[in-house]
Design goal:
CATH architecture: 2-Layer Sandwich
Order of helices and strands: EHEEEHEHH
Strand content: 15-25%
Strand order of the largest sheet: 1-4-5-3-2
Number of strands: 5
Distance between the termini: 41 Å
Radius of gyration: 14 Å
Largest sheet: 5 strands, mixed
CATH topology: Ribosomal Protein S5, domain 2
CATH class: Alpha Beta
Length: 127
């Protein structure tokens, strides 16, 4: 199998309601990012095994150029790491932090990998 062939389909979160629903799931914080994850219950579209990601960067991060750079780096990190570590049927929101721009790319990749592995350990979702 070539590296460009996904093991699980990746989709995008685009609507605010989708981001808000994921907010109530599991959370993992690191220097470069905050990862939120929530399993899609039956009846929530898409009902297949698609894994969906949403990306955000707040104005506290900096100007538009800085926020866009952070989002681009996180999108590339997800493209490289998510296929091996994300779970089908989950929605994820990746929130950029200052480290997403200032740290080496390999470090951001490592943090996302740790977040994806750590978020799926057995622990209850926050209330």
């Amino acid at each position: 199998m070539q590296a460009s062939e996904p093991l699980i389909p990746l989709g995008r979160l685009k609507k605010r309601a989708e981001f808000l629903r994921v907010r109530d799931g599991h959370v993992w914080r690191s220097r470069s990012l905050v990862l939120q994850a929530r399993h899609r219950p039956d009846g929530v579209l898409p009902s297949d095994n698609t894994t969906r990601f949403g990306f955000t960067a707040t104005k506290r991060l900096g100007n538009a150029v800085t926020r866009n750079r952070a989002r681009r780096r996180l999108k590339e990190t997800v493209r490289l790491e998510a296929l091996a570590h994300a779970r089908p049927g989950y929605d994820y929101v990746v929130i950029a932090r200052h480290g997403a721009v200032s740290q080496p790319f390999e470090h951001v990749q490592k943090e996302l990998r740790q977040a994806l592995e750590g978020i799926h350990k057995d622990k209850p979702a926050r209330a």
